[in-house]
Every structure is written in structure tokens, then in C-alpha cells.
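Whiteboard transcription, Tuesday session. T.W. wrote the C-alpha cells on the left side:
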């Protein structure tokens, strides 16, 4: 990511001298600062900001346009803003094309597909009510979906609660078509993350808001279980810009951009050591994960699974920590790790992307190769069914160390993104998105969440199958 930033800055400086600037001269700025500002103004998120909002962002990033540019580049790199994506939610799936159209399919008992009904969909179906609105990011939780538009607006549908359906402690109303979240109209949102019992959103200036965490004061503010108003995340991140958030089972990770470099903060439930602080203690306020400094690793992507977490470093190293059941940490065993630990068996792989689910982990290399490890249930790891069988003939064998997903090599195209189910109550499924916008699915498909018609009483697909949808 740092290389990308310096490349952008060099490009900005060169182009700055080749064409007229987009702003009045400011003799108080250096050439590199002027070039950085010029480059910032070419970025989609920065363009609609008022002069006051831009100055506020500059101060929040450390008082330098070069730092603002680094913040913007970092956000684009880890969140894939304004590019296509596919989300493997709990029982349902959401796909966003590069043009901003949204397709949904799978379980729909709460209206989480957004089509105005509660009927399952076994094939991708476009959400027609969103025509004219360009969506750039999606998040899916149990019975709930959230979409972010290029104008920073948030649309939600499905259950009107944020907890798991099994608990039934919150609202019972169903919203079957996308509805604007009125309480966030004053916030320009660029990302949403749905955890268990809470939702978090990230604003374009890098501020985190959460709501419906519960009445015990977690996440730094007191809320009631039925509170649907967003609250700024208090504590260490109040004045530090965040470029990416990731939500797991009752905890949140935040990738922050500081003048000294990138860092990761965690907050919430510490069960299994998933907060990365060397203990299993809950954290009410965001706390810096210090282990990355000891590892001399600059985080660039974070992923929060149900019980474990992962980070990709700027140098391509992968770190995992938390509950190690089924081998989901990739260290060759099922031990828990309460601080981030480098996955040594990936030492010859330069990773660019990581995804985590319920005891499963996927890593994408800079060459487009995919590695997976962890729980083999539902065939969601993508390994050939026959090759994955253990000594007892169980074809859903767990994988304790990273293994190349050879079935994805057969698609003969570079994989750029992996998404997998992150819920403890649903059989998992997985999506692989290629560079050209082709989508492949495997794992559980009993509710239609693969977007592929299953026959002969099938409930899953062990090898990647193409989904009939073009996301380019």
C-alpha cells in the first residue's frame, strides 16, 4: 500500500506540472503538498466535500495533504471502493456490479433480499427499486442487508434488529425493500459491517459509528438493546482516521491510518483471544494491538471472523489470532493465539487479500492464487472432495495449514476477492471473484445462496461453479 501511495504522489507531482491545477494557488504549500492536494481532488470520495470538510479531514489526518492522499489510497486499496463485489452472507448473498447495480439471492425469510417478498431466490435477481442509485458497498448479516451508495447514503432491509434471529430479543418488523436509514443521513458513509448484536459504519473522514450493541456499555457508550441511533465510537479512535472496519461475533476491528503508519485497534468481546491483546478480556474502548509493532508488520487489510481474525501486511505476510478450532489460524494445530502470529507456512506467498468466516480462512496471493484452511464443513474450503477426504473417508476433512485451492486454478483467471459466510448459525458458502468480474461459488446451497440450481437432492457444491451474473 505504501508503494501505491508513493506511486500516486510521484504521478501527482508529474501531472501537476503538465496541466492547470484545480484550485487557486496557495503559496504556503510546498510543491509536493500542492501535488498531493491536486491528486486528492481527482478521487471520487474527496470531490463532493466542501472546503470546510476537506480542511477538517486534513487536520484529522495530521495536517498534511500528503497524509490525506495516503488515507484515501489506503481506503480504496482495502475496501475496493467503487468496484464489483460479492458478499456471502448467512444463508443469502449480495452481488454489486462495477456500475452499482445490486443482485441478491438465497434465503429470504426476513425480506433480506430486498425484492418486496419473503420468497427464496435460487438465481441472482436484480433489486429493481434501487434503479438510479449507484451502490458501491454491501454488508450482510443474519436476516439483514445494508447497502452503501456513492452519495454516502445507507439503505437497509430485512429484520429491523441487529441480533441473531435465534435470540429474538429485538424488533419483529420486516422490511422487504431497501429503505434509507434516516439516522445516518447526516453522515457520509463509505462502509458498513454487521456483527452480532451490533452494526458499525465508517464515514468518509474515517470516523466509526456503532448502534444496537446493548445496555452493558460495550463500545464506549451506553445504549439500550432497541436503540437504532448511531453513536460515534469513543476512546482512542476519536481523533484517528480509520480506513477499514471488520465485524465478528461481538467484536470490531478498525484499520487506522496515522502519520507513523497503519495500525489495528480492536474492541468488544475478547473470548478466545480474538482481540489480539494477549488475554481474553473484553475491551470497552478501542485498544491498539501492539503485536504488529513487535513483528515489524504494517497492516493493510483486516478481516474479522466469528471467533478469529486475520491481517495482511504491506510485505505480504499474513497474521492470524483468536480461537484456533479446526485449524482456522493456519498454524498446523488447533491452539488459540491471543496475539497476532505470522502464518509461517505462507512465507513464500505474498498475500494481498484475506477473508475469514466461522472457523475458516482464505488468503489470496499477488499472483491470484487462493489458499484456504480451517473447518471443512459444507465443502466451503473449495478443495477437491476426493482429495480432501481423511483416513476415515470423511470428505469434509479440516485443514490445519494453508492449502492451495487447486479447483480455482482451473478457472484460468486471476482471483481478486474471496467472500465467505461469517456466522455461527449457518452452513458456510464461499464466493471467488475474478479480475474480469466472473463469480464462482461453492459450499452450502440449501437456500439458493450459491445462485446455482442444485439437483438430485444436492445441498452443496464442493468445487467452484460459475454463477450466471456479470459483475464487470
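and on the right, the sequence the group agreed on:
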Amino acid at each position: 500500500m505504501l508503494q501505491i501511495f508513493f506511486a500516486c504522489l510521484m504521478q501527482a507531482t508529474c501531472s501537476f506540472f503538465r496541466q492547470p491545477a484545480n484550485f487557486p494557488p496557495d503559496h504556503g504549500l510546498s510543491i509536493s503538498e500542492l501535488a498531493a492536494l491536486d491528486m486528492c481532488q481527482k478521487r471520487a470520495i474527496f470531490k463532493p466535500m466542501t472546503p470546510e470538510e476537506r480542511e477538517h479531514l486534513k487536520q484529522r489526518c495530521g495536517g498534511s495533504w500528503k497524509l490525506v492522499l495516503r488515507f484515501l489510497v489506503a481506503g480504496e486499496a482495502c475496501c475496493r471502493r467503487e468496484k464489483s463485489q460479492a458478499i456471502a452472507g448467512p444463508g443469502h448473498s449480495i452481488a454489486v456490479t462495477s456500475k452499482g447495480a445490486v443482485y441478491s439471492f438465497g434465503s429470504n425469510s426476513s425480506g433480506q433480499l430486498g425484492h418486496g417478498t419473503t420468497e427464496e431466490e435460487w438465481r441472482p435477481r436484480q433489486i429493481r427499486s434501487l434503479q438510479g442509485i449507484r451502490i458501491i458497498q454491501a454488508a450482510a448479516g443474519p436476516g439483514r442487508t445494508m447497502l452503501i451508495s456513492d452519495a454516502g447514503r445507507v439503505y437497509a432491509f430485512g429484520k429491523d434488529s441487529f441480533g441473531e434471529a435465534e435470540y429474538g430479543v429485538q424488533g419483529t418488523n420486516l422490511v422487504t425493500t431497501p429503505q434509507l436509514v434516516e439516522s445516518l443521513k447526516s453522515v457520509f458513509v463509505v462502509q458498513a459491517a454487521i456483527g452480532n448484536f451490533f452494526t458499525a459504519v465508517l464515514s468518509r473522514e474515517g470516523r466509526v459509528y456503532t448502534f444496537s450493541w446493548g445496555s452493558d456499555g460495550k463500545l464506549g457508550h451506553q445504549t439500550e438493546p432497541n436503540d437504532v441511533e448511531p453513536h460515534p465510537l469513543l476512546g482512542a479512535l476519536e481523533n484517528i482516521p480509520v480506513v477499514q472496519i471488520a465485524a465478528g461475533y461481538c467484536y470490531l476491528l478498525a484499520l487506522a491510518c496515522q502519520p507513523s503508519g497503519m495500525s489495528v485497534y480492536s474492541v468488544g468481546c475478547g473470548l478466545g483471544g480474538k482481540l489480539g491483546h494477549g488475554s481474553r478480556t473484553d475491551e470497552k474502548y478501542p485498544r491498539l494491538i501492539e503485536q504488529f509493532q513487535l513483528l515489524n508488520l504494517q497492516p493493510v487489510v483486516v478481516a474479522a471472523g466469528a471467533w478469529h481474525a486475520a491481517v495482511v501486511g504491506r510485505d505480504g505476510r499474513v497474521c492470524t489470532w483468536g480461537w484456533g478450532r479446526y485449524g482456522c489460524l493456519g498454524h498446523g494445530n488447533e491452539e488459540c493465539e491471543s496475539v497476532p502470529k505470522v502464518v509461517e507456512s505462507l512465507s513464500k506467498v505474498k498475500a494481498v487479500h484475506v477473508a475469514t468466516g466461522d472457523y475458516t480462512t482464505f488468503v489470496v496471493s499477488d499472483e491470484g492464487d487462493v489458499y484456504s484452511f480451517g473447518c471443512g464443513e459444507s465443502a466451503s474450503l473449495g478443495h477437491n472432495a476426493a482429495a480432501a477426504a481423511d483416513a476415515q473417508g470423511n470428505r469434509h476433512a479440516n485443514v490445519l495449514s494453508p492449502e492451495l485451492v487447486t479447483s480455482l486454478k482451473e478457472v484460468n483467471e486471476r482471483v481478486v476477492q474471496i467472500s465467505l459466510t461469517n456466522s455461527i448459525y449457518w452452513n458456510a458458502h464461499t464466493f471467488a471473484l475474478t479480475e474480469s468480474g466472473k463469480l464462482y461459488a461453492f459450499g452450502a446451497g440449501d437456500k439458493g445462496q450459491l445462485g446455482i440450481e442444485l439437483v438430485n437432492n444436492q445441498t452443496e457444491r464442493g468445487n467452484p461453479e460459475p454463477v450466471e451474473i456479470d459483475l464487470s
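Someone added at the bottom: The radius of gyration is 21 Å.
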